[in-house]
Amino acid sequence: MITTQAQVNHVNQALRSLGEKPIALPYDETNPRWLLAQEFYDQTQDALHVEHFWNFATMRAVLAPALDETNRRQFRGCIEDWVIDHVRINVTEMTNLG
């Protein structure tokens, strides 16, 4: 849902690149450009976040290993496909600290 001027600015960049007229706040439910922007803004933003590596969305963590019944460290396969709060976590590097 578009609620801020920054979001409207993003939509207007896309509209202008398509040769369309810009939209403006407040929301106008009779404007077809507004209706399309409202319908597709969130899913387009989510898709862009997933498709690109964003430095602002990078987090580093040190994880303690889980131990199996033979007391072997269990990292691979356990953490490579985590999903936390609907965010997929990808392991990009593993370093042995000890």
Primary descriptors:
two-stranded antiparallel ribbon, 4 strands, 34% helix, 10% strand
- Give the tally of β-strands: 4
Reading the helices and strands in chain order gives HHEEEE
Judging from the principal axes of the Cα atoms, what is the shape? elongated
Question: What strand line-up does the widest sheet have?
Answer: 1-2
Mean pLDDT: 78
As a whole number of angstroms, the C-alpha radius of gyration is 21 Å
Look at the helices and sheets and give the structural class: alpha+beta
> What distance lies between the first and last C-alpha atoms, to the nearest angstrom?
47 Å
The helix count comes to: 2
The largest pleated sheet is described as: 2 strands, antiparallel
Fold and architecture overview:
This protein is of the alpha+beta class. The strands form two sheets. It has a two-stranded antiparallel ribbon. It has a domain at 5-53. Strand 1 and strand 2 (73-74) form a beta hairpin. The longest helix is centred in the middle third of the chain and has 20 residues, at 32-51. It contains two helices and four strands.
